[in-house]
Here is the input.
Amino acid sequence: MCGIYTQEVAVKNEIKGHAEQAYNSSQILARNCIERTIGILQRRFPALKYGLRLKLSNTLPVIVATVVVHNIAVTLGEDEPADDDDELQQYVAEKRLQLLADKSRGNQSANADIDPITRQLLACVEL
Here is the structure.
């Protein structure tokens, strides 16, 4: 009697093992696809990468809008955005150095000349 029970458990574990492997394989494939897509969206819309400064109720519509605009760009044959983090980091570093130099000279009006998008980018990106 014990031998039959042990065989049944072994068969159930084997079936369970195959099902888990199939599930894990499909999850890995889906996750890779989703992570690549999120990376493309973050390169096309850097605000998604560096953070949205919105009320939570406005965040979802903005994300949906970025996906819609991305799909329109793909439909129109636009190239995928390049990974230009180095250029962005260099730009931010130069702007920060300029701000620090202006502040050390006591030039407060220089801070007012910066456009709001650059100001938000400087506040979000940490070097």
User: Anything to note?
Assistant: The two ends are 68 Å apart (CA to CA).
